[in-house]
Amino acid sequence: MQKVFSVLIIFISSVVLAFAFNLFLLPHEVLTGGVTGLAMVFGLLTPINAGYWMALLNVPIFILGWMKLGKQFIVNSLFSVLVTSVAMIYIPIVQVTDDALLSSVFGGVIAGATIGIIIRFYSSTGGFDIVSLVLIKKWDVPLGGLFFALNSIVVVISGFFFAWDLAMYTMLSIYITGIVIDRIHTRHIKLSLMVVTSKGDDLKKELLANLVRGITVIEGQGAYSGENKKVLYTVITRYELAVLKPIIKEIDPTAFVSVSESMEVMGNFRRD
């Protein structure tokens, strides 16, 4: 059921993304970033629909993703790209508003929200999404910022082929998309997790079985009760917290848990 739910969410998000492109961005020749933006350029300059260009340009990037991010991720991403491409072919390009600024803002917000959701469900929209995800495994930076930096090349192309005011709208759209992605995709945010428990050995075993993290065990004692406790300390990503909460609650419902955001992590910390 979980897999079916994930596929359904990816499908719906991909269709909504196509609506954002065809109803808000393309009618004003305002582009989105990266490979999708290049597909839009080719779609506007040639009689071939942007959906076809999007599928074609993603081929070499999917090969990179297969090698670096794994089979399941690429299968999910292929599904997302195909759904978006087909939806873009069948959804008519309709101008919802005459205001290019409004279209840039709303198109950017919708695109950022859907891309962020798609990535959270272990998928991507192809293109520079995959390149960005490969790079953040090396550099622990916000995905939205990297997305914005890589996709800025589309702004220059947009300016040369169309008009520089539209290029500025494109920059605005890409910037908003990046901000919204970072509000949804929070893997780069690290959390310090401290658990004080009387069932330290059992909890440690379960955490190690469900994490790729090391755990530091500290002997402790309750100041009031005098009961011997174990303090488990580790640093996790925000995504992993959702996995660990039910485990801790099941093993020791009375455990004291403290979670705080870590400003910086140094040393041997696995980024993926």
Can you give keywords for this protein?
single chain, 272 residues, alpha+beta, Alpha-Beta Plaits, 4-stranded antiparallel beta sheet, 11 helices, elongated
Care to describe what's here?
By secondary structure, this protein is an alpha+beta fold. The chain has 2 domains: 2-184, no CATH class; 190-262, 2-Layer Sandwich (Alpha-Beta Plaits), CATH 3.30.70. Helix content is 62%, strand content 11%. The chain is built from 11 helices and 4 strands, in the order αααααααααβαββαβ. The protein has helices at 2-25, 34-45, 50-57, 59-69, 71-90, 100-120, 128-136, 143-161, 164-184, 200-210, 238-251; strands at residues 190-197, 216-221, 228-237, 256-262. A 4-stranded antiparallel β-sheet has the order 2-3-1-4. It is elongated and about 75 Å long. The model has no long low-confidence stretch (mean pLDDT 80).
Query: Which residue ranges are poorly predicted, with pLDDT under 50 across at least 5 consecutive positions?
Result: none
What percentage of residues falls in helices of 4 or more residues?
55-70%
Q: Give the helix/strand class.
A: alpha+beta
Described by strand count, sense and barrel closure, the largest sheet is: 4 strands, antiparallel
CA radius of gyration: 22 Å
Proportion of beta-strand residues: 5-15%
Beginning-to-end CA distance, first to last residue: 25 Å
Number of domains: 2
Mean pLDDT: 80
| Tally of individual helices | 11
Overall strand count: 4
What overall form do the CA principal axes indicate?
A: elongated
Q: What is the string of helix and strand elements?
A: HHHHHHHHHEHEEHE
Largest sheet: spatial strand order:
2-3-1-4
